[in-house]
Amino acid sequence: MLAAIVAIPITVSTLAGCGTRVESSDTTAAVENRPPARSHPGSRPGSLLLPSHESKSKSLPDADDVDPSFHVGLEQLRKRVADDSTDASSVLKLARLLQDAHQTEEAITEYRRYLRLTPGSREAWLDLAKTYGSLGNWTEALTASDSLLAHFPDDPSGLYNKGAVLANLGRAAEARAAWLKVEQQDDDPQMKKMAELGLSRLGK
């Protein structure tokens, strides 16, 4: 039964349950020219993975033919963070652009830098868990999910993510317990539906 639940996707940061990240105005140009989304390890067609902030992008070229303005914006943010590593807003923007550019390890470094500055950021913990999950590093994804839940114990996305991570680790009973908590709440209907699907894969 466990083979059927391996590679259950985890969510990214969301706004009002729609799965869309808010972008600040000074990175709009770079965001409009970000590389196209790729399927991460663990995702599959027809899954209930929430759309990320990448869903705001216009039609984009292949990753090997990215508009130069994207790289310009990325380098500007790198320089800004190098000049002031305590500029939390710039660090977060850099982490997200690196994630969009599929520079995953560097994105993790910047998410961690941001979370040292702003440990109570729900969105950044969600993004960090997602980034680790995209690498198949479920142990670190679980740590990130637990850190989010330490700040927001009943957060539906955090609980769903923890269940997905535990399922990918083969810890079905613990995954079921996390998803049951999501299923029993009504704060986020989308997460509730995703938890119900996860439970069905576990053999509720």
CATH class: Mainly Alpha
Briefly note the structural class of the backbone: mainly alpha
Low-confidence stretches: 1-6, 14-62
- Count of DSSP-assigned helices: 9
How far do the termini sit from each other?
A: 11 Å
| Helicity range | 55-70%
Overall geometry:
elongated
The CATH architecture is: Alpha Horseshoe
Q: What would the average pLDDT be, to the nearest integer?
A: 77
Q: Radius of gyration in whole Å, from Cα?
A: 17 Å
Structure notes:
This protein is mostly helical. It has a single domain (2-202), classed as Tetratricopeptide repeat domain (Serine Threonine Protein Phosphatase 5, Tetratricopeptide repeat, Alpha Horseshoe), CATH 1.25.40. 56% of the residues lie in helices and 0% in strands. It contains 9 helices and no strands. It has helices at 28-32, 68-83, 88-100, 104-117, 122-134, 138-151, 156-168, 172-183, 189-202. α7 (156-168) runs antiparallel to α8. The longest helix is centred in the middle third of the chain and has 16 residues, at 68-83. The protein is elongated and about 50 Å long. The relative contact order is 0.15.
Short summary of the structure?
By secondary structure, this protein is mostly helical. Helix content is 56%, strand content 0%. The chain is built from nine helices and no strands.
Keywords:
single chain, 204 residues, mainly alpha, Serine Threonine Protein Phosphatase 5, Tetratricopeptide repeat, 9 helices, elongated, disordered N terminus
Please outline the helices and strands.
Elements: H1 28-32, H2 68-83, H3 88-100, H4 104-117, H5 122-134, H6 138-151, H7 156-168, H8 172-183, H9 189-202
Helix pairs in contact: 2-3, 3-4, 4-5, 5-6, 5-7, 6-7, 7-8, 7-9, 8-9
